[in-house]
Amino acid sequence: MAYVISDDCVACGTCQPECPTESISEGDIYSINPDTCIDCGTCADVCPSGAISPEA
Ligand code: SF4
User: Average pLDDT of the chain?
Assistant: First the structure.
């Protein structure tokens, strides 16, 4: 289980420094490494686009 970033991402970068395990990578849209994500939800709380949610 990991959080995932949807196409609603506007690549603002708000989430990246908030991740305690440095699991978020920059890109055209940002992405989360599912192998290191600890499912804490911190990134989802700070995303201004509401683009981050738990993997279904
Ligand atoms: Fe990082 Fe937590 Fe978001 Fe996973 S849920 S990417 S550990 S901030």
Answer: 97
CA of 3 to the centre of ligand 1 (A): 6
Ligand 1 atom with least separation from CA of 38: 7
Q: How far apart are CA 27 and CA 47, in angstroms?
A: 16
The pTM for the full model equals 0.91
Residue 26: C-alpha distances to residues 8, 56 (Å)? 15, 22
What CATH number has the domain bearing residue 26? 3.30.70.20
pLDDT of res. 1 = 86
Number of domains forming the structure of the chain: 1
Rounded Cα distance, 4 and 37, in Å: 10
